[in-house]
Design a protein that fits this description.
The protein has about 110 residues and is an alpha+beta fold. It is built from two helices and five strands, in the order αβββαββ. Bound molecules: adenosine monophosphate.
Length: about 110
């Protein structure tokens, strides 16, 4: 989508500190980290929010979690990290391109 900031990151039109990329997914550092490790995993397919995930997207969403766990381990979280999807503005969703937050990097599991 032309007015979507995460589509612009995917297209290379605005910069991001990428941690992982393949033909379906990218992971990049959150610009305003809320934990020592805080990155986002997004699909290249524009899906606005978790509530918009269709049956055909199920494998892709599972892959986001698998890659998120892999990138978390590569970035020093050990097995202690949180996995968060926000759905809707009232739940704090500010960017309407589905994204998985991965937060961790403290001695004890990070808590909200
Ligand atoms: P949410 O509130 O779940 O929609 O989360 C959106 C996240 O995107 C926030 O944690 C922002 O800090 C992050 N964010 C927004 N713009 C950028 C950007 N250009 N690069 C990296 N992270 C961003």
């Amino acid at each position: 989508m032309s007015d979507c900031i995460f589509c612009k990151i995917i297209a290379g039109e605005i910069p991001a500190e990428k941690l992982y990329e393949d033909d379906e997914i990218i992971a990049f550092q959150d610009i305003a980290p809320q934990a020592p490790v805080h990155f986002l995993v997004i699909p290249k397919k524009h899906i606005a929010a978790p509530a918009d995930v269709s049956e055909e997207d199920e494998k892709l969403i599972g892959k986001m979690i698998r890659i998120g766990a892999q990138v978390a381990a590569e970035n020093g979280t050990g097995d202690a990290f949180r996995v968060i999807f926000n759905n809707g503005a009232k739940a704090g969703q500010a960017v309407f391109h589905i994204h998985l937050h991965i937060l961790g990097g403290k001695d004890k599991p990070w808590r909200m």
